[in-house]
Amino acid sequence: xxxxxxxxxxxxxxxxxxxxxxxxxxxxxxxxxxxxxxxxxxxxxxxxxxxxxxxxxxxxxxxxxxxxxxxxxxxxxxxxxxxxxx
Length: 86
What we know:
Blueprint: H1 3-9, E1 11-15, H2 20-37, E2 41-45, E3 51-55, E4 58-62, H3 71-81
Helix pairs in contact: 2-3
């Protein structure tokens, strides 16, 4: 597997660590991605109030005015953004 392929599969969640509810959602998503897609993800520090999901360098989902999308929608967004055969 090439380094470029690995970078395309890198899932990061930029999350405000000052808000425990957002950090809990990130932890839930990390566990669900590992369990359903077999993909490792990591939480990284984000701006105040931020919750953004990136696959490679592409943002595939983020918190909006109505809050964080459901875990099912977040997993679907990650699945759709992963390279074929991933």
